């Protein structure tokens, strides 16, 4: 059900973005373009403090020339550019969530890389054209003052059909939340299955096979986070934490490719891809931390709060008996309320060797390192 809902809302989101792109391209083709910069910036000889944007007559495409488009009131610093990349990356972070549901993907060895290769260029293409449509028809003041840019765009250009935009924004938001809950709950489910979270989170509904406890934990955490922070700071926190986790993961991948080159890997990419990503990651986080040390520092502190939780909940094996009794009682109550049980696994799939042989070399990683 969740995948069907996600498919429907994704199609609806793309249709709404397609409408914005078409309307924006029509505006550009007709020459109805609003310059993104005030007249005082475009014509320095005019001494005025009025920050009204230039509306070019039909057929005048001067606003699309590089001299006008890339003219800035002030030159941004490298740290500000890095922070802009970090904030914009929030819109492109969906590629990583697909990895959380690998077990539910049909033929993941083939479809997982295919989905990433298709989705990232598609999202980049659609979002680029959407921003071009916005900037060609709206002034910077309108963009900054708008709570929902798509709604303001629709009210300005779609006339009586502008009601489509708020509905599309609402559906897009619901679809995004559905995708987040669908994927992130599997992250809690896998963590509990590995013993890093309470065992209750590793249980699924006895009939629908849905990880209800993990879903409830994700919902509760989301509501708490929304109540204690602003959207701007939350995006910075999440983006910094995500990219820090991505970088550590990529570094681990490179370490294993170096230490265990013959380890069997179902999905394998050229080393140039992770190396380039790691270099970009280091520059991005380094300059972002330099530009916004407080925001990025808070994100780092939030991430480090998991260290004492790990030592108390996972590393500490000899806990008092009362702690085990409480966990057992809470697990029992959770099972009764959510109707969940531990999933049954195929014993043939479980009995797989921890280190496989590289099919291309015919040697095991243990024999290669000996």
From TrEMBL:
<keyword id="KW-0472">Membrane</keyword>
<feature type="transmembrane region" description="Helical">
    <location>
        <begin position="212"/>
        <end position="234"/>
    </location>
</feature>
<dbReference type="InterPro" id="IPR050598">
    <property type="entry name" value="AminoAcid_Transporter"/>
</dbReference>
<feature type="transmembrane region" description="Helical">
    <location>
        <begin position="12"/>
        <end position="34"/>
    </location>
</feature>
<feature type="transmembrane region" description="Helical">
    <location>
        <begin position="297"/>
        <end position="316"/>
    </location>
</feature>
<dbReference type="GO" id="GO:0015179">
    <property type="term" value="F:L-amino acid transmembrane transporter activity"/>
</dbReference>
<keyword id="KW-1133">Transmembrane helix</keyword>
<dbReference type="GO" id="GO:0042941">
    <property type="term" value="P:D-alanine transmembrane transport"/>
</dbReference>
<dbReference type="GO" id="GO:0016020">
    <property type="term" value="C:membrane"/>
</dbReference>
<feature type="transmembrane region" description="Helical">
    <location>
        <begin position="157"/>
        <end position="183"/>
    </location>
</feature>
<feature type="transmembrane region" description="Helical">
    <location>
        <begin position="270"/>
        <end position="291"/>
    </location>
</feature>
<dbReference type="Pfam" id="PF13520">
    <property type="entry name" value="AA_permease_2"/>
</dbReference>
<feature type="transmembrane region" description="Helical">
    <location>
        <begin position="81"/>
        <end position="102"/>
    </location>
</feature>
<feature type="transmembrane region" description="Helical">
    <location>
        <begin position="240"/>
        <end position="258"/>
    </location>
</feature>
<dbReference type="GO" id="GO:0015175">
    <property type="term" value="F:neutral L-amino acid transmembrane transporter activity"/>
</dbReference>
<feature type="transmembrane region" description="Helical">
    <location>
        <begin position="114"/>
        <end position="137"/>
    </location>
</feature>
<dbReference type="InterPro" id="IPR002293">
    <property type="entry name" value="AA/rel_permease1"/>
</dbReference>
<dbReference type="GO" id="GO:0042942">
    <property type="term" value="P:D-serine transmembrane transport"/>
</dbReference>
<keyword id="KW-0812">Transmembrane</keyword>
<protein>
    <submittedName>
        <fullName>Asc-type amino acid transporter 1</fullName>
    </submittedName>
</protein>
């Amino acid at each position: 059900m969740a995948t069907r809902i996600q498919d429907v809302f994704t199609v609806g989101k793309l249709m709404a973005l397609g409408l914005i792109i078409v309307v924006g391209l029509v505006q550009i083709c007709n020459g109805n373009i609003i310059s993104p910069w005030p007249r005082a910036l475009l014509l320095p000889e005019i001494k005025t403090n009025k920050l009204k944007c230039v509306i070019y007559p039909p057929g005048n495409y001067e606003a699309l020339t590089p001299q006008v488009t890339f003219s800035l009131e002030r030159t941004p610093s490298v740290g500000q550019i890095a922070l802009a990349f970090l904030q914009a990356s929030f819109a492109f972070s969906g590629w990583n969530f697909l990895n959380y549901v690998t077990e539910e993907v049909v033929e993941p060895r083939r479809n997982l890389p295919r989905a990433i290769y298709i989705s990232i260029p598609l999202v980049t293409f659609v979002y680029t054209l959407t921003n071009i449509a916005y900037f060609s028809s709206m002034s910077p003041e309108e963009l900054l003052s708008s709570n929902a840019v798509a709604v303001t765009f629709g009210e300005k250009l779609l006339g009586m059909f502008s009601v489509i935009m708020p509905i599309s924004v609402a559906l897009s938001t619901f679809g995004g939340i559905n995708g987040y809950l669908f994927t992130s709950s599997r992250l809690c489910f896998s963590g509990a299955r590995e013993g890093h979270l309470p065992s209750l989170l590793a249980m699924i509904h006895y009939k629908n096979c849905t990880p209800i406890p993990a879903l409830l934990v994700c919902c509760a955490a989301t509501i708490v986070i929304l109540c204690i922070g602003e959207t701007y700071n939350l995006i910075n926190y999440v983006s910094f934490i995500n990219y820090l986790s991505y970088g550590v993961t990529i570094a681990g991948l490179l370490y294993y490719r170096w230490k265990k080159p013959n380890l069997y890997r179902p999905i394998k990419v050229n080393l140039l891809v992770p190396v380039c990503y790691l270099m970009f990651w280091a520059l991005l986080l380094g300059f972002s931390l330099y530009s916004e040390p407080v925001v990025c520092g808070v994100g780092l502190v939030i991430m480090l709060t998991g260290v004492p939780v790990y030592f108390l909940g996972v590393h500490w094996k000899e806990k008092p008996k009362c702690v085990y009794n409480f966990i057992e009682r809470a697990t029992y109550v959770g099972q009764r309320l959510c109707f969940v049980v531990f999933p049954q696994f195929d014993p043939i799939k479980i009995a797989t060797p921890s280190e496989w042989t590289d099919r291309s070399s015919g040697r095991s990683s243990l024999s290669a390192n000996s």
